[in-house]
Amino acid sequence: MNSGLKCPECSSENVYHDGSLWVCPDCAHEWNPETADGSSGADESGVRDANGNLLSDGDSVTVIKDLKVKGSSLVVKGGTKVKGIRLVDATDGHNISCKIDGIGAMNLKSEFVKKA
């Protein structure tokens, strides 16, 4: 486990590599060492899906869980593929604008989709 890295939160040397991130088992902090300040990357520009992939306008995404449509009895089923998304800056957390077949135009939160 001697990677030469230390946890930026607690300075522990017990860190391990997990996918694209490093994890500290002592304080449960996760970080990407490629970022300049060692932060978790939440302040990086761009919208990321549930798996951490960067999304851009025109991408296709898949809904990962059933979502109730506010104000109606409709449900967007998990596994629904949405094509041609647009990224928007919304204050309510809904940062994807799209059209879903059978439902129409709506906004989604990026944490409930994955890149297709």
From TrEMBL:
Residues 6-32 form the Protein YjdM N-terminal domain. SUPFAM superfamilies: Prokaryotic SH3-related domain (SSF82057), Zinc beta-ribbon (SSF57783). Residues 47-116 form the Protein YjdM C-terminal domain. Residues 34-54 are annotated as: Disordered. Pfam families: YjdM, Zn_Ribbon_YjdM. Belongs to the YjdM family. PANTHER family: PROTEIN YJDM, PROTEIN YJDM-RELATED. This is Alkylphosphonate utilization operon protein PhnA. It comes from Paramagnetospirillum magnetotacticum MS-1.
